[in-house]
Structures are given as structure tokens and as C-alpha cells.
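Predict both folds.
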Amino acid sequence: MTVRVVLVDDQPLIRAGLRMVIDEDPGLEIAGEAGTGDEAVLLVRDLRPDVVVMDIRMPGMDGIEATRIITADPEGPRVVVLTTFDDDEHVYGALRSGASGFLVKDMALPEILAAIRVIAAGDGLIAPGVTRRLIERFARSPEPPPAPRHRPPDALTDREQQVLSLVGGGLTNHEIAARLVISVATVKAYVTRLLAKLDARDRVHLVIIAYETGLAPLPRSR
């Protein structure tokens, strides 16, 4: 099944470069392009793509607001933010708005293509390094956003705790499967079970829970 992608970026050269690479991937195709958040919202409603690759800073409606509107539709596409700006406010804003992934433009193109496929398959993905900084934000904040209510770690099996620890480390389902020598389908089943057991809204909340419960140690302050 071909993944239909909408590119959203106010720089035509960026869109052209991504379009050229995506067009060469037999599993992906460009459904449309937009240069602003407003255009993106209208285009997505019309084309119904599988994945939206969204920039953040654009004229008019920015990518974070456009992501919030697009993901508010239960039948809408999944959104992966691809931006130059990987500061804490943009990361947190993008994930809070409903984005399934956060990537930076200096990543290698094959990694970006792989991330689009991961997002389309229903997984979540945050660029390496960004996950740790996201957690550092929660560790530093005197009044962090309320965490989802969840049972203590001993409510989980040893294997579920292993999977949660690896999710907290920012690993994808495929990477977790390779690490634990199990199938990707089994990993997905574990993640689904964790979401239910821990009353977590999404994968990002699982990352936070992994740190809160000590299954993934908080980074030391510098």
C-alpha cells in the first residue's frame, strides 16, 4: 500500500528537495503541497492523505496550530513535524498539538523517509536527542504538566517494563523488536497494552511515564 504524503513548508526549495526524494521511494507518493498552515488545513480536508510532513514557522497560521486542527479529526492523517527549530518550546508545542513525530531538517534523507513510513504505520518517532531534551524539560520544570494517572511499575510484567524502558529511550517499535529479539507485531501488542494499563494517551506519555517511574533514568543536570 502506497503512503500518500502532503508536504507543508513555506520554502519551495525545501518542498522540491523532499518531493524529489519521496518520488523515488516506491512506497511513498506526494499527494499535494502547501506553503502555509491555512493552505495545509484545506488541502488535507480535500485530499485525505496518510501523513502530513509539517514545518513550524510559516506565514499566517503556523505549523503547530495547523497540526492541532488536522489531528482534531479522528479520521485525519498523522502529522510529523520536520523543522529547523528543535528548541524546547517547539518540540513541546508540536507534541502537545497532536504530532506523531518530531524530526529536524539536518537528519539524513533516508532517515526522514524511514520516519514517514514509521509514522504511517501507526508508530511515533522523535529525533534522537530531542527525546532526552524533552524529558529534561519535565525534569527541570518546577510545575510540570499533569502526568496521566497510571498504576505503579509493579503492575507491569518484567517484559512490559523492558518495553516501556526502551520506549522511554526513544526507540521505535522496529528497534525494540530487534533489541528484544521479538516480532514488531509483538512489540505493538505490548505498547497497546502499556497504553491501556498506564492510562496513557499516546507514546509521548509513555516516554514521560518511563522516566517518572525510574525505568528510564532522568539525565543528570549539567
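Second protein follows, with its predicted C-alpha cells after the sequence.
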Amino acid sequence: MYKILIVEEGKRLESMSMKLLELIVLKKQYFKVYRISAKVFFQGIEDKVDLLMKENHIRFSTIIEPGELSIEPDLIKTVCLNLLDNARKAVGGNARISLKGHPVERGYQFIIEDNGCGMEKNELSKIKEA
């Protein structure tokens, strides 16, 4: 199980490195977008983080409504994994993290909620910084 996850994650990171190279060096602004089931995509996210959450005694839940995503999967997966890792680092005792998703008028919205320490208001403006 771990070997498969390590190989998959290695391939994803290699792909991300190439995409970051294209973004930064080649100033590429558009990537091929794929249509994928929200259930399938977020199940992959859940499979990647479930063991880590259990090891950290975090109650992790997902509520993903059916829908279709039009995304570059590697980039959005990285966003999700980073947000979930940030949530993992921020929660204290009685830790809870949830990943929710539902269709909206012009796409699909996903929300990551936790019962962690939150952010200071003066830090919110930095949330989109690299």
C-alpha cells in the first residue's frame, strides 16, 4: 500500500514540477482542462490523506455531492492537499477536518473546514501569496 502511494505521489510531484516550470519560466497561462467526476476526484484526495489524519487522531469526513469538475487535476489536487495539510497543522485537541463539495451555478465549490486556531484578520490578505 505505502509503495503504491509513494510511486503515485512521486509521479504527481514530477508532473507538478514540470507544470511549475511552465508557469514560471515559460510564463504559460493555460493548461489543458479535464472533465472528471467530483466523487472520483475527491475520493482520490480522501485516499491520500486518510491514513495521515488517522495517525494524527483527526476525525476526517467528506461530504461530496455528485457533480462534474473541469480542472487540471494535478494542480487542483495540490491545492487540496496543501489546504488539508494546513488544516492538519492548525487543529488542536478534539481535531476535526471536513472536506465538502457541491455544484454551484457556474461550476463546483469545495470547502475545507477545521476546528483549528484560525488566522489573524491582518494575515487574511496574504492568503493568496506563494
